[in-house]
Specification:
The protein is an alpha/beta fold. It contains 14 helices and 14 strands. It has a six-stranded parallel sheet, with helices on both faces. The chain has a six-stranded parallel sheet with strand order 11-10-9-12-13-14, sandwiched between helices. The chain has a two-stranded antiparallel ribbon with strand order 3-4. Helix 4 (107-115) packs antiparallel against helix 5 (119-130). The longest helix is centred in the N-terminal third of the chain and has 15 residues, at 16-30. It is globular and about 65 Å long.
Length: 338
């Protein structure tokens, strides 16, 4: 099957959407499918307001249509609600082509955090965007219920996975970091919508580590000189930081899932978070996460959780299963190859 994925989030961006799409693409290729991602890297771009690291395609409609026509997909998936997503949607509606979409990001909450735009207005735009989709893919049951209550339809499940070969627990015994323990770790964008200040302000023993980049990085490094900021890390460097830590703190209230939760758990790290969508679905009701409206209490309670159970919990999530769900959710164009 020839699968076109249209996404405003793509390399060189570093975030969960890009990691998900890239990993699923790899699994689909291994399954024998042909997959092309049509991202901003193929277009003239401008900086996203308030987030210059993100580039937005400038007037991509005609070029995107030419690229998609040349690729001749058997199915089209629109991953994001940005300029490329809207352009692909317009083309599909005009040509009467079926397509699927995904709800990766609680975009209305992100917009409110940055611009104080009313939630109801943004959700109305999102609802209209996704309404013609044959399947709106969501990562958790909590998000499915929330969107259904807001009038979204055609919602289907599309979970996430983790690389359990890369993200592994540390070996028992003393380490070079023992003098600084406990180590509380955050991995993700350093941006206002991630609510990272809630973590940095906590009165906790030991050290805080922040892995990732974003528009708030320089400001927060100056404000919190005792926090270790590493910038972006990938591959084994990132896995080593997970292994070295004692608790993974996830302060976000707006993520739909949180891939970093699975990476932390696979590394044997218990999770501390608010009882909100994402953490509730991944670790709620399990012995591998401490959820509390008081993030400090959650972080301290997480220190008492069993690291072995964290690893076992993460091993339930497979990227191959994620790719198979994605493939099953697609809406083939008439006459498409299976």
């Amino acid at each position: 099957m020839r699968i076109a994925i249209v996404s405003d989030a793509w390399f060189p961006q570093v975030n969960g959407v890009v990691r998900t799409l890239d990993t699923v693409r790899g699994e689909l290729l291994a399954m024998g499918h042909t997959v092309e991602v049509f991202g901003p890297d193929r277009f003239t771009t401008i900086a996203c307001p308030t987030y210059p690291e993100i580039r937005l395609a400038l007037l991509p409609g005609r070029r995107l249509e030419r690229l998609l026509t040349a690729f001749a997909p058997d199915a089209i998936h629109i991953a994001t609600e940005g300029p490329l997503g809207f352009a692909a949607r317009r083309m599909c509606l005009r040509r009467k082509l079926p397509f699927t979409t995904a709800y990766h990001t609680r975009f209305p909450e992100y917009v409110r955090a940055r611009m104080f735009f009313p939630l109801a207005w943004t959700y109305a735009i999102m609802r209209r965007f996704h309404a013609p989709s044959r399947a709106v893919m969501v990562s958790t049951e909590t998000i499915r219920r929330d969107l259904a209550a807001r009038g979204f339809s055609n919602i289907v499940a599309w979970t996430r996975g983790v690389d359990i070969d890369l993200f592994t627990p540390r070996e028992p015994g003393p380490t070079s970091d023992d003098a600084r323990r406990p180590i509380f770790l955050y991995v993700g964008r350093v941006a206002v919508e991630k609510n990272i200040k809630a973590f940095l302000k906590l009165d906790l023993p030991g050290e805080k580590w922040v892995v990732g980049g974003g528009p708030m990085l320089d400001k927060l490094k100056a404000r919190y000189p005792r926090v270790r900021f590493t910038g972006h890390k990938h591959g084994e460097e990132l896995a080593a930081l997970y292994r070295a830590a004692d608790v993974f703190v996830f302060p976000s209230r707006t993520d739909t899932f949180g891939l970093v939760l699975l990476e932390a758990l696979a590394s044997g790290l218990p999770v501390a978070a608010y009882p909100v969508p994402g953490p509730l679905d991944v670790v709620g009701g399990t012995p591998v996460g401490a959820l509390d409206p008081d993030l400090r209490i959650a972080a301290l309670n997480a220190m008492e959780l069993d690291r072995g159970q964290c690893r076992a919990h993460a091993m339930r999530y497979s990227w191959r299963h994620t790719a198979e769900l994605f493939r099953a959710n697609l809406a083939p164009i008439a006459g498409a190859a299976e």
